């Protein structure tokens, strides 16, 4: 996969990913470079959940915001949010949820979604 420019538009992923590519209208392709970023974000959130204490949500929100800042445009950010929520909702991840951290992250993502929807209208 390759970056197509400073605006973070991406070319079609390699043929090794059959069925993954879905062109969006206006010929901008979806962003697939974020898997490493997603994995790093999930690992950071799980590490925060393991050492949960008051104030952890602030650190987790910063991690989530840094992750979302990697994406440009409403669709890319929305897809990143969905991917993160799916990762955190998986049973093996839920078993490591402490102090309701994942639920607080979900609320943060809902707030961010409203902000993005307003911003990109």
Total count of strands? 0
Q: Which regions are unreliable across 5 or more consecutive residues at pLDDT < 50?
A: 1-34
- Count the DSSP helices: 5
Helices and strands, in order, run as HHHHH
In percent terms, what proportion of residues is strand?
under 5%
Largest sheet: none
Mean pLDDT: 76
User: Distance between termini?
Assistant: 29 Å
Envelope shape: globular
Secondary-structure content class: mainly alpha
Whole-number tally of structural domains:
2
Q: Which value, in Å, is the CA radius of gyration?
A: 15 Å
Which percent range fits the helix content? 55-70%
Supply database-style keywords.
121 residues; mainly alpha; 2 domains; 57% helix; disordered N terminus
């Amino acid at each position: 996969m390759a970056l197509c420019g400073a605006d973070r538009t991406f070319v079609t992923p390699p043929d090794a990913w059959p069925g993954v590519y879905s062109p969006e209208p206006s010929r901008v392709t979806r962003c697939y470079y974020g898997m490493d970023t997603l994995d790093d974000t999930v690992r950071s959130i799980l590490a925060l959940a393991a050492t949960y204490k008051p104030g952890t949500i602030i650190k987790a929100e910063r991690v989530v915001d840094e992750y979302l800042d990697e994406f440009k445009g409403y669709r890319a950010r929305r897809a990143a949010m969905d991917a993160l929520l799916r990762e955190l909702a998986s049973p093996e991840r839920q078993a490591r949820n402490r102090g309701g951290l994942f639920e607080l992250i979900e609320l943060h993502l809902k707030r961010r979604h409203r902000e993005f929807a307003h911003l990109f209208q």
